[in-house]
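debug: dumping io for the single-chain case to check the tokenizer round-trip. Nothing else runs in this session.
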Amino acid sequence: MTQLDPAYAGTWRFDPGHTRIGFNARHAMVTKVRGAFNEVEGTIHVDVEDVGKSTVEMSVKVASVDTRNADRDKHLRTNDFFDAPKYPKIVFRSTRIDQVDENSFIVNGELTIKDTTREIAVPIEFTGVETDPFGNLRAGFEGSRRIDRREYGVSWNKALDSGGVLVSERVLLEFEVSAIKEV
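debug: decoded output
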């Protein structure tokens, strides 16, 4: 593996205006509904000596769910899905990071949705580092991971005449992160 640049060591904070934590799920078995959480917080602590000791913490405010449909968003905030008043945040905390290629990592950790915490592994691609026009060192990361929403107590559904269901049980989580290095 390639050694990480020593300049990358330290804490990086998610830039919420340039970060998207999203999802997509099949609707009525024929199309996809895409959404995102508009309020995101997160940090990455990079240990360049031992990547495995690096950490990621992220949380999204459930009430900020946005699928571009107000009625659907309102339904997603209810107990049928996320129960935003009772469980206001979805949280991910890494437990180990493995570098699998020069710019590819597996971020292992605990994802908590509602009151359920489960181990997941998320493949993440490091897309690069640049200094932005304001002098900030900015890094990009992208990845996705499919989960079964029922494992997190998000099980509402309606049967279709065809034998299918209205909302797929498998949901693709999408991570597009822009992080700024703290000075």
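debug: round-trip ok. DSSP finds one helix and eleven strands in the chain.
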